Amino acid sequence: MAPSSSGSSQTSIADRIARVRSRIEATALASGRRPSSVILTAVSKTQSDDALDAALMAGQRVFGENRVQEAQAHWAARRKAFPDLELRLIGPLQSNKAEDAVALFDVIETLDREKLAEALSKASAKTGRSPRVLVQINTGAEPQKAGVLPEEADALITSARDTYGLTVEGLMSIPPAAEAAGPHFALLARIARRNGLDVLSMGMSGDFETAIRFGATHVRLGTALFGDRPVVPRVLND
Ligand SMILES: *Cc1c(COP(=O)(O)O)cnc(C)c1O
Question: Of ligand 1's atoms, which has the minimum distance to the CA of residue 90?
């Protein structure tokens, strides 16, 4: 029988998860925070079934995906075996996919426009599922990047809550790749504070310790846990 590589890759994913968890704990403690106040979201986009299962076996339960269809393929069946899974949508959502997203995800982190708030509200009424919502802020005002502009954030948060009845629990952002992340994390924390929001999804593999120092409650890590992402052709249109 041909030797399988899954044994060693499972070990290394489990090892990486353990190492990242201890870095999260140490940074939280050094910032005067409880380690349990920082949740690790494992970003499982493009990962193989072996990688997903290795993360599950290592006890990981919170996963982030950036496309609805891929997330369905990854998690629809696994969710039955692991009812304590938490699935978070961290990629842009088209209004016409709102119903599928609401049916699958527990948290949608990428609300960035009123039209999508309306679509999520309708989808919740139709499906009877009401995922919690984060508003994505384009803190760097980058033209190519999703997210509401900082100066338009308060209005969107208010209308998502009051007009559309969504459970807005926090904010999410992806700082510009070429800038220091700290000021962007600080801005996100300020917008959250003045809107009475507790959840801050910020920090990725390269900057999660900085994000924790600025108050991140959720760090979204892919490559630090799984290694480099396999390059896959983009064939699904979501
Ligand atoms: C892919 C992705 C991540 C994870 O990025 P890494 O650098 O691999 O940790 C985090 N957040 C979002 C929105 C992503 O799309």
Answer: 13
